[in-house]
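Retro notes, structure queue

What went well: the backlog is down to a handful. What didn't: a couple of records were mislabeled last round, so from now on we paste the full input next to the output in the thread. Example, using TetR/AcrR family transcriptional regulator from Streptomyces endophytica:
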Amino acid sequence: MTARDARPRPSATTATSTPSPTPASGRAQLIADAAIRLLAERGMRGLTHRAVDEAAGLPLGSTSNLARTREALLEAAVRRLAEREAAVLTPAHMPAAPAPTTGDETSAAASGPPEADTGPEADTGPEADTGPGAVAGPGVDTGPGVDTGPEAVADVLALALHRYLSRHRQLLLARYELALEATRRPALREIYDRAGRAFREPMIAMLAAAGSAAPERHALTMVAWCDGVLFSCTAGQFHTTTPTRAELRTSCAELLTGMLRGQDAGR
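Corresponding output:
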Protein backbone atom coordinates (compact mmCIF):
# COMPACT_ATOMS: atom_id res chain seq x y z
CA MET A 1 0.00 0.00 0.00
CA THR A 2 1.44 3.38 -0.95
CA ALA A 3 1.34 6.53 1.13
CA ARG A 4 -1.33 7.87 -1.21
CA ASP A 5 -3.48 4.76 -0.68
CA ALA A 6 -3.11 5.12 3.09
CA ARG A 7 -4.63 8.57 3.19
CA PRO A 8 -8.22 8.59 4.55
CA ARG A 9 -10.92 8.88 1.95
CA PRO A 10 -14.06 10.96 2.49
CA SER A 11 -16.96 8.84 3.63
CA ALA A 12 -20.40 8.99 2.10
CA THR A 13 -21.57 10.92 5.18
CA THR A 14 -18.80 13.48 4.78
CA ALA A 15 -19.47 13.89 1.08
CA THR A 16 -23.16 14.70 1.61
CA SER A 17 -22.87 16.84 4.73
CA THR A 18 -21.74 19.98 2.88
CA PRO A 19 -24.69 22.40 2.55
CA SER A 20 -25.96 22.55 -1.01
CA PRO A 21 -25.94 25.93 -2.75
CA THR A 22 -29.12 27.94 -3.00
CA PRO A 23 -31.18 26.69 -5.97
CA ALA A 24 -30.98 29.01 -8.97
CA SER A 25 -34.68 29.89 -8.84
CA GLY A 26 -34.58 30.53 -5.11
CA ARG A 27 -31.45 32.63 -5.40
CA ALA A 28 -32.95 34.61 -8.27
CA GLN A 29 -36.00 35.39 -6.15
CA LEU A 30 -33.83 36.35 -3.19
CA ILE A 31 -31.82 38.73 -5.36
CA ALA A 32 -34.90 40.27 -6.96
CA ASP A 33 -36.54 40.80 -3.56
CA ALA A 34 -33.37 42.47 -2.28
CA ALA A 35 -33.34 44.73 -5.36
CA ILE A 36 -36.94 45.75 -4.69
CA ARG A 37 -36.13 46.52 -1.07
CA LEU A 38 -33.15 48.65 -2.07
CA LEU A 39 -35.17 50.57 -4.63
CA ALA A 40 -37.74 51.42 -1.96
CA GLU A 41 -35.18 52.34 0.70
CA ARG A 42 -32.40 54.01 -1.32
CA GLY A 43 -33.85 54.80 -4.72
CA MET A 44 -32.37 54.03 -8.12
CA ARG A 45 -28.91 55.33 -7.16
CA GLY A 46 -28.72 52.88 -4.29
CA LEU A 47 -29.30 49.86 -6.53
CA THR A 48 -25.94 48.27 -7.36
CA HIS A 49 -24.87 44.67 -7.79
CA ARG A 50 -22.71 44.87 -4.67
CA ALA A 51 -25.52 46.43 -2.60
CA VAL A 52 -27.89 43.65 -3.67
CA ASP A 53 -25.33 41.00 -2.66
CA GLU A 54 -25.05 42.59 0.79
CA ALA A 55 -28.80 43.09 1.23
CA ALA A 56 -29.50 39.48 0.19
CA GLY A 57 -26.73 38.11 2.42
CA LEU A 58 -24.99 36.46 -0.55
CA PRO A 59 -21.30 36.25 -1.47
CA LEU A 60 -19.99 39.15 -3.53
CA GLY A 61 -20.48 38.49 -7.22
CA SER A 62 -23.70 36.48 -6.80
CA THR A 63 -25.90 39.17 -8.33
CA SER A 64 -23.49 39.71 -11.22
CA ASN A 65 -23.58 35.99 -11.99
CA LEU A 66 -27.37 36.14 -12.29
CA ALA A 67 -27.78 39.58 -13.89
CA ARG A 68 -24.56 40.73 -15.49
CA THR A 69 -25.78 44.18 -16.50
CA ARG A 70 -27.78 46.86 -14.72
CA GLU A 71 -30.49 46.45 -17.35
CA ALA A 72 -30.79 42.75 -16.53
CA LEU A 73 -31.00 43.52 -12.80
CA LEU A 74 -33.77 46.05 -13.37
CA GLU A 75 -35.69 43.60 -15.55
CA ALA A 76 -35.44 40.95 -12.84
CA ALA A 77 -36.79 43.45 -10.31
CA VAL A 78 -39.74 44.35 -12.57
CA ARG A 79 -40.65 40.71 -13.14
CA ARG A 80 -40.50 39.90 -9.43
CA LEU A 81 -42.46 43.05 -8.61
CA ALA A 82 -45.17 41.92 -11.02
CA GLU A 83 -45.35 38.52 -9.29
CA ARG A 84 -45.77 40.12 -5.90
CA GLU A 85 -48.20 42.77 -7.10
CA ALA A 86 -50.38 40.03 -8.59
CA ALA A 87 -50.96 38.79 -5.05
CA VAL A 88 -52.01 42.24 -3.86
CA LEU A 89 -53.65 44.31 -6.54
CA THR A 90 -54.94 42.17 -9.40
CA PRO A 91 -58.68 41.50 -8.91
CA ALA A 92 -59.44 37.82 -9.30
CA HIS A 93 -62.85 37.17 -7.75
CA MET A 94 -65.87 39.38 -7.56
CA PRO A 95 -67.34 39.38 -4.04
CA ALA A 96 -70.47 37.30 -3.68
CA ALA A 97 -72.18 40.30 -2.07
CA PRO A 98 -70.85 43.68 -0.91
CA ALA A 99 -71.34 43.34 2.84
CA PRO A 100 -70.97 46.77 4.48
CA THR A 101 -68.21 47.18 7.05
CA THR A 102 -66.71 50.12 8.87
CA GLY A 103 -63.14 51.21 9.44
CA ASP A 104 -60.55 48.55 8.76
CA GLU A 105 -62.86 45.60 9.38
CA THR A 106 -62.24 42.54 7.28
CA SER A 107 -65.04 41.83 4.82
CA ALA A 108 -66.22 38.26 4.58
CA ALA A 109 -67.98 39.13 1.35
CA ALA A 110 -65.00 38.72 -0.93
CA SER A 111 -64.09 35.19 -1.90
CA GLY A 112 -60.83 33.57 -2.88
CA PRO A 113 -57.55 32.34 -1.40
CA PRO A 114 -55.68 34.32 1.26
CA GLU A 115 -53.10 37.02 0.59
CA ALA A 116 -50.20 35.39 -1.23
CA ASP A 117 -47.31 37.86 -1.06
CA THR A 118 -44.65 36.36 1.17
CA GLY A 119 -41.84 38.70 0.22
CA PRO A 120 -39.56 40.08 2.91
CA GLU A 121 -41.06 43.56 2.73
CA ALA A 122 -44.62 42.53 3.54
CA ASP A 123 -45.87 44.47 6.53
CA THR A 124 -47.94 42.38 8.90
CA GLY A 125 -48.45 45.10 11.50
CA PRO A 126 -51.72 45.95 13.24
CA GLU A 127 -53.17 47.74 10.19
CA ALA A 128 -52.71 44.72 7.95
CA ASP A 129 -55.80 43.26 6.33
CA THR A 130 -55.34 39.54 6.81
CA GLY A 131 -58.90 38.44 6.29
CA PRO A 132 -60.37 36.32 3.51
CA GLY A 133 -60.87 37.65 0.04
CA ALA A 134 -57.62 37.59 -1.85
CA VAL A 135 -57.06 39.89 -4.77
CA ALA A 136 -54.81 37.66 -6.83
CA GLY A 137 -54.51 36.08 -10.24
CA PRO A 138 -55.67 37.17 -13.68
CA GLY A 139 -59.23 35.80 -13.80
CA VAL A 140 -62.49 37.51 -12.90
CA ASP A 141 -65.45 35.44 -11.74
CA THR A 142 -68.54 36.85 -13.43
CA GLY A 143 -70.57 33.66 -13.52
CA PRO A 144 -74.18 33.11 -12.45
CA GLY A 145 -75.00 34.15 -8.91
CA VAL A 146 -72.05 36.51 -8.65
CA ASP A 147 -72.81 40.16 -7.89
CA THR A 148 -71.13 42.22 -10.62
CA GLY A 149 -72.72 45.60 -9.94
CA PRO A 150 -70.87 48.82 -9.10
CA GLU A 151 -71.00 48.18 -5.36
CA ALA A 152 -69.40 44.76 -5.80
CA VAL A 153 -66.65 46.17 -8.01
CA ALA A 154 -66.06 48.95 -5.49
CA ASP A 155 -65.79 46.38 -2.70
CA VAL A 156 -63.08 44.30 -4.36
CA LEU A 157 -61.10 47.35 -5.48
CA ALA A 158 -61.28 48.87 -2.00
CA LEU A 159 -59.97 45.62 -0.55
CA ALA A 160 -57.06 45.61 -2.99
CA LEU A 161 -56.14 49.26 -2.44
CA HIS A 162 -56.35 49.01 1.33
CA ARG A 163 -54.14 45.94 1.39
CA TYR A 164 -51.57 47.74 -0.70
CA LEU A 165 -51.54 50.90 1.41
CA SER A 166 -51.55 49.11 4.76
CA ARG A 167 -49.13 46.27 3.96
CA HIS A 168 -47.07 46.89 0.87
CA ARG A 169 -45.83 50.48 0.70
CA GLN A 170 -42.33 49.30 -0.17
CA LEU A 171 -43.67 47.65 -3.32
CA LEU A 172 -45.29 50.94 -4.29
CA LEU A 173 -42.09 52.93 -3.78
CA ALA A 174 -40.13 50.40 -5.82
CA ARG A 175 -42.74 50.53 -8.56
CA TYR A 176 -42.50 54.32 -8.83
CA GLU A 177 -38.72 54.12 -9.12
CA LEU A 178 -38.98 51.50 -11.85
CA ALA A 179 -41.77 53.35 -13.70
CA LEU A 180 -39.62 56.45 -14.08
CA GLU A 181 -36.59 54.42 -15.13
CA ALA A 182 -38.72 52.59 -17.72
CA THR A 183 -39.40 55.89 -19.49
CA ARG A 184 -35.70 55.94 -20.39
CA ARG A 185 -35.22 52.23 -21.16
CA PRO A 186 -37.42 50.83 -23.98
CA ALA A 187 -36.73 47.19 -23.10
CA LEU A 188 -37.68 47.79 -19.48
CA ARG A 189 -40.76 49.72 -20.62
CA GLU A 190 -41.99 46.70 -22.57
CA ILE A 191 -41.68 44.43 -19.53
CA TYR A 192 -43.28 47.02 -17.25
CA ASP A 193 -46.25 47.52 -19.59
CA ARG A 194 -46.75 43.79 -19.99
CA ALA A 195 -46.94 43.43 -16.21
CA GLY A 196 -49.46 46.27 -16.01
CA ARG A 197 -51.89 44.43 -18.26
CA ALA A 198 -52.41 41.90 -15.45
CA PHE A 199 -54.44 44.59 -13.68
CA ARG A 200 -55.90 46.51 -16.61
CA GLU A 201 -57.46 43.56 -18.43
CA PRO A 202 -59.39 42.20 -15.40
CA MET A 203 -60.57 45.77 -14.74
CA ILE A 204 -62.04 45.93 -18.25
CA ALA A 205 -63.81 42.60 -17.69
CA MET A 206 -65.26 43.72 -14.35
CA LEU A 207 -66.55 46.99 -15.78
CA ALA A 208 -68.14 45.21 -18.74
CA ALA A 209 -69.89 42.84 -16.32
CA ALA A 210 -71.04 45.82 -14.25
CA GLY A 211 -72.82 47.27 -17.28
CA SER A 212 -70.26 49.59 -18.84
CA ALA A 213 -70.92 50.32 -22.50
CA ALA A 214 -67.32 51.51 -22.89
CA PRO A 215 -65.32 49.28 -20.54
CA GLU A 216 -61.91 50.13 -22.01
CA ARG A 217 -62.49 53.87 -21.66
CA HIS A 218 -63.93 53.47 -18.18
CA ALA A 219 -61.02 51.20 -17.24
CA LEU A 220 -58.62 54.04 -18.03
CA THR A 221 -60.53 56.25 -15.59
CA MET A 222 -60.62 53.60 -12.86
CA VAL A 223 -56.96 52.59 -13.23
CA ALA A 224 -55.97 56.27 -13.16
CA TRP A 225 -58.05 56.76 -10.00
CA CYS A 226 -56.51 53.72 -8.31
CA ASP A 227 -53.00 54.85 -9.27
CA GLY A 228 -53.75 58.34 -8.05
CA VAL A 229 -54.97 57.15 -4.66
CA LEU A 230 -51.95 54.90 -4.22
CA PHE A 231 -49.46 57.61 -5.19
CA SER A 232 -51.14 60.36 -3.15
CA CYS A 233 -51.24 58.20 -0.03
CA THR A 234 -47.67 56.95 -0.48
CA ALA A 235 -45.60 59.81 -1.90
CA GLY A 236 -48.05 62.66 -2.49
CA GLN A 237 -50.00 65.18 -0.45
CA PHE A 238 -51.73 62.49 1.63
CA HIS A 239 -48.65 60.36 2.38
CA THR A 240 -49.45 60.36 6.11
CA THR A 241 -52.98 59.11 5.49
CA THR A 242 -54.23 55.58 4.99
CA PRO A 243 -57.92 55.61 4.04
CA THR A 244 -60.08 52.93 5.58
CA ARG A 245 -61.63 50.26 3.41
CA ALA A 246 -65.02 51.87 3.97
CA GLU A 247 -63.73 55.23 2.72
CA LEU A 248 -62.11 53.66 -0.32
CA ARG A 249 -65.25 51.67 -1.08
CA THR A 250 -67.45 54.78 -0.86
CA SER A 251 -65.21 56.84 -3.13
CA CYS A 252 -64.87 54.05 -5.66
CA ALA A 253 -68.63 53.40 -5.70
CA GLU A 254 -69.32 57.10 -6.25
CA LEU A 255 -66.98 57.18 -9.24
CA LEU A 256 -68.34 53.96 -10.73
CA THR A 257 -71.98 54.91 -10.23
CA GLY A 258 -71.39 58.33 -11.76
CA MET A 259 -69.74 56.84 -14.85
CA LEU A 260 -72.43 54.23 -15.42
CA ARG A 261 -75.33 56.60 -14.82
CA GLY A 262 -73.71 59.18 -17.06
CA GLN A 263 -73.56 56.76 -19.97
CA ASP A 264 -77.24 55.93 -19.51
CA ALA A 265 -78.20 59.60 -19.51
CA GLY A 266 -76.25 60.16 -22.72
CA ARG A 267 -78.05 57.46 -24.68
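Agreed that this is the format going forward. Reviewer comment attached to the example: The CA atoms of residues 103 and 247 lie 8 Å apart.
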